[in-house]
Amino acid sequence: MDRRPPRRKLALLVGALVLAVPGLGACGFNYATDREYTPTAGVNDKSGAVDVLNALIVSSTEGSGTFSATLSNNSSTDTISLDALSFGSNSTVQVASFAPIQVKPNTVVNLSDGQGVKVSGSFKTGDFLSLSLEFDNGETADMDVPVLADTYEYKDLDNGTGSPSPAATTSESPSASLSPS
Question: Among 7, 139, 144, which Cα is nearest to 73's?
Fold first, then answer.
């Protein structure tokens, strides 16, 4: 007596398995590997001609730090400069003056290599600070960036240039934005 299943049943079983494997072996539609994901502690803004990537403030002491980010110019023809960094009119965070940071067409500038911008004020690691980056093409990038300790992969990145002006007092007009000199 032959106990093998008929070939038709076997063919149907194999066909069903072949059709089921993609659905069972994957996550269905909208795969996680198809979505954009940047594993960083900083935040990203890709709304303008210049992408601001991994924006954060690295701080080695409370009340002082360096703004760091990677600026990626998506324009194929125009050089775009970061002209100003501001923390809003009600903020006591001060920004050191800096020369405009030029980003040539289709290139990136990494501010963590000593080009970061020194900031000071009432903040500590773990805080998030609202700031605006102003570019010479009229665009701005508004972000809430984290303040991270100058440790691990951020060791020695609190290395920005310049000294921030003293923090504004309540009797003065608070100006947290300094444009380059």
Answer: 139
